[in-house]
């Protein structure tokens, strides 16, 4: 197919391939929220974090910016009191901006809804009143299992209003995943919905939620949002309530925002780690909200009059921080889209950017690689000149995709911020500041002001320019996780044991990413160094997938690794040993795939299931994942000399070739 994709590519190669650094345009710098280089020096003093806290309204002033007395259990803005819902909603209404759009929502089939700050205020209050009526008290964890419907941020803010932490479970996750998270958090309340649209089909979500609830060990009150109307009638049953009826019953009611201590939990978010058990990352009200507001201001350059679009799902941390809390705290208009980027056509995103006159667009490299594959003719159909800034997050971005994004979406006018951060860090950590820094495609940039990130070798010594090592952060920041829910011990062992020196009270946070440093102090993040995969920007634990596979009758053992994938970044490769008496056939393969989808969700679906009589193991019996990765990637095999069973590697490789 000789279309404009190829022409565009040729032109891009010619003009941009050689260029390694890019400067933000004068026009951007002139209007940028932050453009003074002195900011880096200013933030060497932790007191500078007041600047972040100053973006919020506090009910009671804090005494101390940072309390380090119980490191690594740091506390920020101690004894300050505030409410996140007040900061994201009420104050904008009070400041004369009640008629500005807070949330603009678009369904996959094209329905639209606009919530002004006043609408949001009314809806959040009514649902907060309804939650209280159901029995939700301060500090009760409310789980949300919802797709991208406006009731999701409304429910999050309603919880924040009454001081009930939320725990949002990505709607694409399975019933089992929901049950595990509700049990771990002992959550007695669930907000979910009947269903949603995917590529035009109405999906039944309630069924999955019900199945999950059957695995919850305690009683649960459930609220069900009616997204699909007549398209899907669901039976509510005992302990289930219709969202619409609940809010109607509380129409016009007001709930005073509960003043929360800065260190009180705002939400929990479960994320994958190296073991099968997901980690309940705890974020707080004062530090987290200050941090996401500050980074939305400094990095995304959000202004109240902007229309800002982050295409993530609110079920992930990116959506929490940069669809809901950061943008709304700054009083901007945040756009929410329910569906897929290629429905009804591959220009859906660009058509929306044009129609809504989007100012900033923030997405993941996996999406950019898909756009690139689809070709330039789709963005070219639309006027994208409203865009002022572009961002990426979730995984490393290769320079070619960066340049494509910069040219074909940003028209070489918009700075691109490649933002490295994690569920645990709450907000962005390593990126250029768009109004200051030179951009280098493929490298996220220097640590943000006040973030002391360092690339170190195995012994914890900083590496030199041009060298690779491990990314570490050796000073606390306000958005950091405070602990793992009900598991302080695991918090310390997971994040603070590798490079800290307890004796000298030196605490170093280890995010478990590999990184490279250049001569200008720019950091290129290379990816996870633990057994966590990054599939389309989503974190998946290999252990979780393996335990789903060994749960399938007929499977004796499984090893899961990531292999390169053009669009997804990484794809799941599963090596499986069958039990005696079971045939390694397509039927079993199908069951394995189904087992993984049931246990985790379709995002974890294996790209390939490779049956093998043995797995490569070291003499001490550890599976050599590195070799399995080489096989998945079709790479030359690494050293096999330490294996107990070196022959097996060639044997497996031949099976993949013929697969
Ligand atoms: C926000 C988010 C975190 C992991 C992280 C790293 C990878 C995120 C990145 C990046 C290279 C970037 N990651 N941003 N790698 N460059 N700009 O994605 O949180 O889901 O917890 O994933 O994602 O490996 O450790 P989370």
Report the CATH superfamily of the largest domain: ANL, N-terminal domain
Give the ligands present.
ligand 6R9
Helix and strand composition category: alpha/beta
Count, helices: 21
Indicate the mean pLDDT: 93
Outline type = globular
Domains (count):
2
- Radius of gyration over all CA atoms, rounded: 24 Å
Second rung of CATH, namely the architecture of the largest domain: 3-Layer(aba) Sandwich
**Poorly predicted sequence stretches spanning 5 or more consecutive residues:** none
The CATH topology assignment of the largest domain is Rossmann fold
N-to-C terminal Cα separation, in Å?
28 Å
Q: Estimate the helix proportion, in percent.
A: 25-40%
Read across the widest sheet, the strand sequence of neighbours is: 12-11-8-6-7-14-15-23
How many DSSP-defined strands?
30
Write down the CATH class of the largest domain. Alpha Beta
Tell me about the biggest sheet? 8 strands, mixed
Organism: Haloarchaeobius litoreus
Family: Belongs to the ATP-dependent AMP-binding enzyme family.
Domain AMP-binding enzyme C-terminal: 544-622
Keywords: ATP-binding, Ligase, Nucleotide-binding
